Automatic annotation (TrEMBL):
Keywords: Membrane, Transmembrane, Transmembrane helix. It comes from Aliiroseovarius zhejiangensis. It holds the Pfam family DUF1523. This is DUF1523 family protein. InterPro entries: Phage_phiNM3_A0EWY4.
Length: 225
């Protein structure tokens, strides 16, 4: 039973970690190489990795999507450790609108213009911080969605994820508050009810033992005769 609980808790933790890692904002130090627009088919299950289109195109199985090609500084441990090495990273640039996740992004055209303005070469690089959410997966053609971009003086900029820090602080406070409420509810309602049920069961068990004792004595009296 304990092993089963451990497995269930581990699965819940992995699912929550995956959801948070996908939807929470991440920051990459990048050099914009190119921007382009491409027609994308959205007719299979991989549609969940694309932004939900507006009402007028909700039934379409394909649409034009804008992309931003970059050279990104490699990072490890969820972005906490940055190296001098670079890798290719391609971002999609889609509005999220009022849908999930709630970034309320409506400025796709503006962001594409800012990315165009930041294009540079390896000989004369322009560095920028790309804020995005989502994952890059070449197998299923999934791309992280760019949310914002801002120029920086050098690739050695220090990025503090204030939103993520505040989010987890608030989440921890909510979890602690709900846990305290649950403990009070259990102590005031569930535990007394279980205690009363246990006492009632003990009383029933004692009556049953007394009844069995009387029946045994009655049988014993007949055996003596």
């Amino acid at each position: 039973m304990r092993r089963f609980r451990t497995i269930i808790r581990s699965l819940i933790f992995l699912i929550l970690f995956g959801v948070f890692h996908y939807v929470l904002p991440q920051h990459d130090v990048v050099r914009v190489v190119n921007t382009y627009q491409e027609r994308q088919d959205l007719g299979d299950w991989t549609r969940i990795f694309w932004a939900k289109p507006d009402d007028q195109s909700a039934t379409l199985v394909n649409r034009d999507v804008q992309f931003i090609q970059t050279r990104k500084k490699k990072t490890y441990l969820l972005g906490f450790i940055r190296t001098d090495a670079e890798e290719v990273m391609v971002y999609r640039n889609e509005d999220t609108g009022w849908g999930w996740p709630f970034y309320f992004k409506f400025d796709t055209a503006n962001l594409q213009t800012e990315a165009d303005d930041l294009q540079s070469t390896a000989e004369n690089p322009k560095w920028a911080v790309m804020t995005h959410y989502g994952w890059r997966n070449e197998l299923i053609s999934a791309f992280p969605n760019a949310v914002a971009i801002r120029p920086v003086a050098s690739p050695d900029v220090t990025i503090i994820p204030w939103f993520n820090i505040l989010f987890f602080i608030v989440l921890a406070a909510i979890v602690g508050f709900v846990r305290a409420l649950w403990r009070q509810f259990r102590e005031r309602s569930i535990d007394p009810a279980l205690e009363d049920a246990g006492e009632a069961w003990d009383a029933v068990d004692e009556r049953a033992d007394a009844a069995r004792g009387r029946f045994s004595r009655w049988l014993g009296s007949w055996r003596k005769k």
